[in-house]
Amino acid sequence: MAERWLRYFLLRMRRRLHSFLQRHVRLDTDPIHMARGAAIGILLGMTPLIGLQIALAVPLAAMVRASRVMAIAFTFVSNPWTMLPLFFFQGKVAEAVIPYENNIFNRSAVEALFLEQDPERSIFDKVQTIVKRKQVRDYFSRILVGGLMLAPGAMCVGYLTIYKTVTAIQRRRRIWRERRGPPLVASRRS
């Protein structure tokens, strides 16, 4: 009985995985649907809301009928390797566009905030000290403003790139299928 249940369960999981891959990996869905998802992911990826990006991407993609998978994937535009350069650039853009009384996005200010600490203290204490500083709020607000300034352009580029790429792949597949012809069916001989 248990073996039968396990076989049924594995068959259902295989069908679900096949369906998922058919819709999202093989690009059989609407290119506009996928491009919208990428644009939403880029928008949320450009914000400093690190823990909330994916949590916001899914309902936002559902509201505008976009690909949730693409939205989640493109939130990783700000991943651990690109996060610091991206946020630093966003802060510099915000300072260049909006006149602040003091510019805090320079090398010495960033080093003073993050690097000049006692090496004997635990990481938790270091992070707690950094978060309590007023200057962190200034950094966060400037990164958010810079990200929201850069996001529309990045969204447009991402949308157009994904749309054209998916359309080209689907066109090539359609041409390949037409050239290949109908599938051969083995005839039954009596």
Provide key terms for this protein:
mainly alpha; 8 helices; 190 residues; single chain; 0% strand
Question: What does this entry look like structurally?
Answer:
- This protein is an all-alpha fold and 190 residues long.
- Helix content is 72%, strand content 0%.
- It has eight helices and no strands.
- Helix 3 runs antiparallel to helix 4.
- 21% of the residues are buried.
Outline the secondary-structure elements.
Blueprint (H helix, E strand, L loop, with lengths): L1 H24 L5 H15 L7 H11 L4 H7 L8 H15 L9 H8 L8 H10 L1 H47 L10
Helix pairs in contact: 2-3, 2-4, 2-8, 3-4, 5-8
Beta-strand share of residues = under 5%
Shape: elongated
**What Rg do the Cα atoms give?**
24 Å
The biggest beta sheet reads: none
The stretches of 5 or more residues where confidence is low (pLDDT under 50) are none
Offer a concise description of the structure.
The chain has 190 residues and is mainly α. The chain is built from eight helices and no strands.
